[in-house]
Design a protein that fits this description.
Helix content: over 70%
Number of helices: 8
Shape: elongated
Largest sheet: none
Order of helices and strands: HHHHHHHH
Length: about 220
Amino acid sequence: MTGGWLRPAVFGAMDGLVSNFALVAGVAGGVASAGGGTSAIVLAGMAGLAAGAFSMAAGEYTSVASQTELARGELTVERQALARTPELEQEELAQRYIERGVEAGVAREVARQLSRDPDQALAVHAREELGVDPDDLPSPLLAAVASFLAFTLGALLPVLPYLLGATSLLPALLVSGVGLFGAGALVSLVTVRSWWWTGSRQLLLGGAAAALTYSVGILVGNGVT
């Protein structure tokens, strides 16, 4: 059980890295063509980090809170049904086992035994009928915090070389490339793909986004000058 933090953490880091890398690349392209120092790049990168992190946290909180509230509402309905019509609910559970190939007598006996404890009956019905585990509902606050921290970490990578004194995009490109592959590889934890596939895919997509944004930055910079 993860409490709902793993998915927002993984995708928050990936989103922060891709979006801020593209932003930094775009501003760097504009600065390169229009002239200027790296302060504009750092400012844009830090602003993108802050705006994106708070936006991701708020969005993740709202999404997970809505999902959890929906699940709790369905659990309330199921709890009421178990209290009002326990025999009907027991037979409904037995029929599910029968559909899976369990002998009718065995299925009804299993359903009867599982239904003796109201809490256990609710948990079984919730998992079988709703696909919800009452003991493992995601936490909106935990998801929001995980998303905020992960996005911040991911978005910091493209800016870090400039904060340490870099004057060109190359160090940010190298650091972000490693980060993109690593973030993509982490996605394999919540998918069926291999780590090298998800890492390579994310590196390619993130690099393409940065390259396109860099080109736009050059065009805008030339237009300004």
